[in-house]
Amino acid sequence: MNDQSDTAVDLDYPLRAPHNSVWIVGSCNGLVCIAIEEDAVFLWNPTTRKSNRLPDSGVRMRYGCFIIYGFGYDLCSDDYKVVVIFCVLRSGGSYETEVKVYSLRTDTWRRIGDFCHGIPLNDSGRYASGSLHWSASGVQGSSYSWDIVSLDLANEVYGKVVLPNCGEGRFDSTLEILRGCLCVLCNFPGTRSDIWVMKEYGQTESWTKLFSIPHITNLWDYEHSTLLYLSRNGEVLLQLGPQLVLCNPRDGTFKNIVIHNLLAWLEAHIYVESLVSPNAGNVIQREHQ
Predict the structure, then answer these.
(1) I need a labelling partner for 74 at 20 to 30 A (CA). Which of 95, 132, 277, 281 fits?
(2) 255 φ/ψ sector (left φ>0, alpha ψ -120 to 50, else beta)
(3) Which whole number is the average pLDDT over 174-183?
(4) Taking 80 as the threshold, does the pLDDT of residue 275 lie above it?
(5) CA distances from residue 130 to 71, 150, 238 in whole angstroms, order as listed
């Protein structure tokens, strides 16, 4: 994030084809998990250009269902894990879930307990402190609730993270990760967006409002907004719809980030280079079929 515009670099990712849809599940320690179409999941290191196609999870898409993923690192067993949540719509508008976990160490999928706190809302789980986290919607009486549901990758047990007290009024919330900590972006339409960070994982009282970003017409008029990065000098990199914007919360100024050689894009992720292998021990790299 310098004062000059940057140029896009084209990466030769696995199973690349003109019409394939690619879903970036997440990035952890230099490995990127990507899902291509509905059934091809890869672990990929863009730095070394090595990739590993995971075995078939056995989950199949059909009418009235959707799939949510997550990717993270199990610190206790030194293992990378991929989680797939298969949600099926039942009669009466309720959902049932089936959850499977892939272990890179064993190169196998296992079924674990069903997602038990509502329905996951965000496309991919957010990884922090050895757990994956999803925004989830549930029903409380006649109204809907918004929760943060966690899955500890070591013991594979679900939990809930108490939300920050964002204040009064109507606002939209998105769950993100900032410097390895859980972060909630509370957007008050037409007014401001507050950025909250849980500085000590699992400690509700550690939720801290870092700053507020003023509403800027024509920038916040997008349904999708994502907090990507906080620089050392306090500037915030945001994705607002199809735009990348650098914000200085101290003076409320914004600057569009121009990326050359990029015709169109849908989402952005932060990636840190490493030499971590996407293959487990003696696992032979699968051919990109």
Answers:
(1) 95
(2) beta
(3) 89
(4) yes
(5) 11, 10, 25
The model's pLDDT over 111-161, given as tens digits with 9 standing for 90+, comes to 999 887 777 776 789 999 999 999 888 655 445 678 899 999 999 999 999
- Cβ(271)–Cβ(280) under 8 Å? no
Residue that wins the pLDDT comparison between 270 and 26: 26
pLDDT of residue 19: 58
Both structure tokens of 222: 């997008």
- For residue 215, pLDDT over 80 is answered with no
- What type of residue is 126? R
d(CA 208, CA 166): 10
- The structure's pTM equals 0.84
CA distance 181 to 197: 7
Q: What's the per-residue H, E or C state across the chain?
A: CCCCCEECCCCCCCCCCCCCCEEEEEEECCEEEEEECCCEEEEEECCCCEEEECCCCCCCCCCCEEEEEEEEEECCCCEEEEEEEEEEECHHHCEEEEEEEEECCCCEEEEECCCCCCEECCCECEEECCEEEEEEEEEECCEEEEEEEEEECCCCCEEEECCCCCCCCCCEEEEEEECCEEEEEEEECCCEEEEEEECCCCCHHHEEEEEEEECCCCCCCCCCEEEEEECCCCCEEEEECCEEEEEECCCCEEEECCEECCCCCCCCCCCCCCCCCCCCCCCCCCCCC
Chain position carrying tokens 């009235």: 64
* Calpha distance 187→215 (Å, rounded): 9
